[in-house]
Amino acid sequence: MNKLDDLDRLHKLDKEGMLDAVYHLPEQMEEALSISEEFSFKVSNLKNIVIAGMGGSAIGGDIARVYLAGCAPIPITVIRSYDVPAFVDSSTLFVTSSYSGNTEETLSSYDEAKGKGAQIIAITTGGKLKELASSDGYPVLVIPKGYQPRAAIGYSFVTIIMSLYKAGIVEDPSDDIKDACETLKGLREQLKQDVKCEDNTAKQLADDFCGRLPVIYGSAGTTEIIAQRWKTQVSENGKAMAYYNVFSELNHNEVVGFSYPKELLKKFVIIYLEDSDDNARIKKRMEITRDIIKDAVYKVDEVRSAGGSKLSRLFSLIYIGDYASVYLAFLNGTDPSPVTKIDYLKDQLAK
């Protein structure tokens, strides 16, 4: 029996319920939509949007940026830093997203944006961010506690995208969100824990990743941020190293590196994240690149998006990667939830 088909073993390892959190992503998105529909605030004379966050909170902003790339009438920038761009001013909608409400980089950027007169909203479960934003008179959208931030992506993305709708910047995304939820509900019937490895794409990916180095390739304008999500999930959930890059930039540098060290390259598992909206020239680049690198690495494979709308397709790939990263943790014999090294780092910074 494959280790991933031993459900008793999985349950013993999954002490904090990460599999359950992944399974219920569509319900999380539905709840976030309901919460967001009750949220209201006023803005004026906006010229740009800045979304500030770290980790799982920032990735929601990046998905929003990619999803809205073809329709947002003003620029959307996502920052992961203590400082804000020089252009931030009273014409900026500054969205501060911190699941815990205590992320020090986000709190620092909040303070700086406030000093520049930006129009601010906060998305959080509580903590210092809620306290500060409420005291300063800024709108606060409160989301449910109880998740690892990376497992709360449904809350972070939906609340951000709905906030931009409430600000009058984009069209109502509710139908796309509901469509994505239905796509995920169908997809999880193929990915959930009691589907055996031979029929489960996520378990098969975890098998390929175990003991090897996953290298995730996305495409500019479509799956670029999903590739980053896969990389971070493999690290946080799977407790393993991974790497990501983006077509076609990687064709201008990285592709040359598939020569040495030969022994290490044989440990590489290359995954193409593919979507129907990928540029035709990038699709051609993928084919040629496969021919160049296939003999140097352990494997080159592809994972295609599912669903009709752009949002459904993006989240289908996120879902497959999330499941694969949790299954990888189980193959590594560990609980996917704890992030002890991050906790240690935060403790040291607090001294």
Major sheet description: 5 strands, parallel
Determine the fraction of residues in helical runs and give it as a percent range.
40-55%
Kindly state the mean pLDDT as a whole number?
96
The proportion of strand residues reads 5-15%
How many distinct helices?
A: 14
Q: Radius of gyration, rounded?
A: 20 Å
- Strand order of the biggest β-sheet: 2-1-3-4-5
Secondary-structure element sequence? HHHEHEEHEHEHHHEHEHEHEHH
Counting DSSP E segments of at least 2 residues, the number of strands comes to: 9
Query: Globular, elongated, flat, extended or rod-shaped: what is the shape?
Result: globular
Structural class: alpha/beta
Low-confidence segments, given as residue ranges, are none
Distance between the termini: 48 Å
How does this structure look, described?
With about 350 residues, this protein is of the alpha/beta class. The chain has 14 helices and nine strands. It has helices at about 5-15, 20-25, 25-35, 55-65, 105-115, 125-135, 155-165, 175-190, 200-210, 225-235, 260-265, 280-295, 310-330, 340-350; strands spanning about 50, 75-80, 90-100, 120-125, 140, 215-220, 245, 270-275, 300-305. The strands form two sheets. A five-stranded parallel sheet has the order 2-1-3-4-5, sandwiched between helices. Helix 10 links the parallel strand 6 and strand 7. The longest helix has 22 residues, at about 310-330. The chain is globular and about 55 Å long. The model has no long low-confidence stretch (mean pLDDT about 95).
